């Protein structure tokens, strides 16, 4: 399903089912389709993650937390406003979908009109041996990304 309107409807249904306070939740493949239709992808991982684990070409970068301190970025909304207009749909990405959930929530509360969380994130869930990047997520889906 690559039709943006169908993806938005499905994402909205997930939001209702999950009780999400933002436009919806999307799979990595759906997020990529929304990007191709004009949505901005905002990566909220730390600089270290983006550098060492990989990044998505064309994405904006606004840390949710800093590394190694783990302190919440006090300028998150200001930096987001510099990166993305409030009328542009945004798909938020982190490692596994947790920080991106909070980013979508805070951005929605601050006036961004159409925010989505990318379920599974960049690296996805852990497998039986506690490793990521083998079960699901952006990388496993075979979507575009680059190292470093």
Brief sketch in words of this structure:
The chain is 34% helix and 11% strand. It has helices at residues 4-18, 28-36, 47-53, 76-83, 98-109, and strands spanning 24-26, 40-43, 60-61, 90-93, 115-118.
Description of the molecule:
- With 148 residues, this protein is of the alpha/beta class.
- The protein has a single domain (4-118), classed as Rhodanese-like domain (Oxidized Rhodanese, domain 1).
- Helix content is 34%, strand content 11%.
- It is built from five helices and five strands.
- The chain has helices at 4-18, 28-36, 47-53, 76-83, 98-109, and strands at residues 24-26, 40-43, 60-61, 90-93, 115-118.
- The chain has a five-stranded parallel β-sheet.
- The longest helix is centred in the N-terminal third of the chain and has 15 residues, at 4-18.
- It is globular.
- The model has no long low-confidence stretch (mean pLDDT 96).
């Amino acid at each position: 399903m690559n039709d943006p309107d169908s993806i938005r409807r499905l994402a909205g249904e997930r939001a209702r089912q999950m009780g999400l306070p933002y436009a919806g939740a999307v799979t990595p493949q759906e997020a990529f389709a929304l990007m191709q239709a004009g949505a901005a992808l905002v990566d909220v991982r730390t600089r270290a993650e983006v550098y060492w684990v990989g990044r998505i070409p064309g994405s904006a970068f606004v840390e949710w937390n800093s590394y190694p301190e783990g302190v919440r970025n006090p300028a998150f909304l200001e930096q987001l406003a510099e990166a993305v207009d409030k009328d542009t749909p945004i798909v938020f990405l982190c490692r596994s979908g947790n920080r991106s959930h909070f980013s979508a929530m805070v951005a929605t509360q601050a006036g961004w009109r159409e925010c989505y969380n990318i379920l599974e994130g960049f690296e996805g869930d852990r497998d039986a041996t506690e490793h990521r990047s083998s079960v699901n997520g952006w990388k496993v889906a075979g979507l575009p990304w680059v190292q470093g």
